[in-house]
């Protein structure tokens, strides 16, 4: 409604402006024609009653006094030229100041000659808008004696004042219309949307993980009953679908987890079984190397048990959601402590500031950094001159941690699966490290991204709010 009112105002203002301009132009033309007709009649009267011979060179003598009288009565400046455009006499002193500049140009003479009415009007736009009217002065036998120039000044100041007043009235009316439209739109919108507010609120609160309340249709208008009934039906279908989907997801997650755990545990169980069987077959209490063999068997079993323990810890850490503790940490200090755990001398640490504080769980932050650095170390194992740089940057309201390495990089085929659980390019491990890091970072409303170039290295970037 407001847009329509504004468009209507602009259209009316434009039409008014151009219509008024056109009317003023027509008025000036008609007024110029009336003045020209009146001046020509006066000139003809003077020519009829003069005692001078009617020749071009006599015009200055014939109108020596009359031209000032005519100009004063009509309120316009007059100038008379011979048929070649040379000035003869003028009601202004300009003719005597610069007669050479008063000569008519060839274009004006040609336009006057070609005109069917033997009349030519030239519009001059400047500080003062003028129209110069040119026509022939004829003798009683209609033979041209001279060329008459009438300088007609358009009343621009008066015209613009009138136009401004009209446009200002339109603006005032339009402001009143806009205010009225605002009030009407407000109350009309409230009336229309009042009954829709309940539906809107319920739709906003609709969630898959809780029971959604239906809308009572007893107090609603009949126009909305169909809409509300459709919403209530959708709620019933949504609850059934959500319950079924949740059950399927839980079953699928348990099946997948059980398969993964069974697969990872079965790997160390096989060498353990073979070791026990070998020990059972070859055990001889009187063997002089029995203690050494028992030590080797025990070492093998302990190694496989440690592997199973690491598997259990990895799954436990991945499943354990990090608790959001309100712990204010000096991020550069914690990151440096995490880097110091590693013995590799090619790992460097840098921080933009000595103190950058943020809310983060200390243990989870250490876990994020150590996982990223560990991956960087493994990526640079085959690099001749390995380099790893861990940086902490202050981004005003955020903290940025970057881990840069010059390792093997990540192939294009593996890019979409980097943060997926169970994905790994290594011969050992469960592929849960980056998935766990992503889980921790997103829990603290942060993001983790990476850029990589195969054969040149990778940069992991973690950003989280202070």
Automatic annotation (TrEMBL):
GO terms for molecular function: kinase activity. It catalyses: ATP + protein L-histidine = ADP + protein N-phospho-L-histidine. Its EC number is 2.7.13.3. Keywords: ATP-binding, Kinase, Membrane, Nucleotide-binding, Phosphoprotein, Transferase, Transmembrane, Transmembrane helix, Two-component regulatory system. Residues 260-466 form the Histidine kinase domain. Gene3D superfamilies: 1.10.287.130, 6.10.340.10, Histidine kinase-like ATPase, C-terminal domain (3.30.565.10). InterPro entries: HATPase_C_sf, HATPase_dom, His_kinase_dom, HisK_dim/P_dom, HisK_dim/P_sf, Sig_transdc_His_kin-like_C. The chain crosses the membrane at residues 166-189. Pfam families: HATPase_c, HisKA. It is an enzyme of class 2 (transferase). The keyword Nuclease does not apply. PROSITE patterns: HIS_KIN. This is histidine kinase. It comes from Dokdonia genika.
């Amino acid at each position: 409604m407001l847009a329509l009112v504004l468009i209507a105002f602009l259209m009316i203002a434009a039409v008014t402006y151009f219509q008024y301009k056109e009317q003023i132009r027509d008025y000036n033309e008609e007024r110029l024609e009336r003045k020209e007709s009146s001046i020509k009649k006066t000139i003809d009267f003077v020519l009829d009653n003069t005692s001078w011979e009617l020749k071009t060179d006599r015009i200055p003598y014939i109108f020596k006094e009359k031209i000032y009288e005519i100009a004063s009565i009509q309120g316009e400046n007059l100038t008379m030229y011979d048929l070649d455009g040379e000035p003869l006499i003028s009601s202004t002193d300009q003719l005597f100041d610069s007669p050479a500049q008063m000569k008519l140009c060839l274009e004006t003479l040609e336009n006057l000659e070609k005109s069917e009415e033997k009349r030519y009007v030239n519009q001059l736009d400047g500080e003062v808008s003028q129209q110069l009217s040119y026509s022939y002065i004829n003798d009683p036998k209609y033979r041209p004696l001279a060329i008459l120039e009438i300088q007609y000044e358009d009343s621009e100041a008066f015209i613009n004042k009138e136009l401004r007043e009209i446009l200002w009235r339109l603006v005032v009316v339009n402001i009143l219309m806009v205010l009225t439209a605002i009030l009407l739109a407000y109350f009309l919108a409230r009336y229309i949307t009042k009954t829709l507010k309940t539906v809107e609120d319920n739709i906003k609160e609709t969630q898959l993980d809780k029971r959604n309340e239906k809308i009572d249709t007893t107090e609603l208008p009949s126009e909305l009953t169909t809409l509300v009934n459709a919403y209530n039906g959708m709620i019933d279908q949504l609850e059934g679908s959500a319950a079924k989907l949740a059950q399927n997801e839980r079953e699928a997650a348990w099946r997948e987890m059980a398969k993964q755990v069974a697969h990872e545990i079965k790997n160390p169980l096989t060498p353990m079984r073979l070791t026990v069987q070998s020990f059972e077959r070859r055990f001889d209490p009187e063997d002089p190397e029995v203690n050494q063999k028992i030590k080797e068997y025990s070492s093998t079993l302990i190694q496989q048990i440690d592997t199973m323990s690491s598997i259990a810890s990895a799954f436990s850490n991945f499943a354990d959601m990090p608790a959001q503790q309100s712990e204010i940490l000096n991020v550069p200090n914690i990151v440096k402590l995490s880097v110091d755990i590693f013995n590799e001398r090619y790992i460097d640490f840098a921080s933009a500031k000595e103190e950058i504080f943020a809310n983060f769980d200390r243990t989870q932050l250490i876990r994020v950094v150590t996982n990223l650095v560990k991956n960087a170390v493994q990526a640079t194992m085959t690099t001749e001159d390995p380099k790893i740089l861990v940086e902490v940057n202050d981004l005003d309201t955020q903290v940025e941690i970057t881990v840069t390495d010059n390792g093997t990089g990540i192939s294009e085929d593996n890019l979409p699966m980097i943060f997926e659980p169970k994905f790994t390019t290594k011969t050992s491990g469960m592929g849960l490290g980056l998935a766990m890091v992503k889980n921790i970072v997103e829990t603290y409303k942060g993001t983790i991204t990476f850029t990589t170039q195969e054969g040149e290295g990778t940069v992991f970037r973690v950003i989280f709010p202070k």
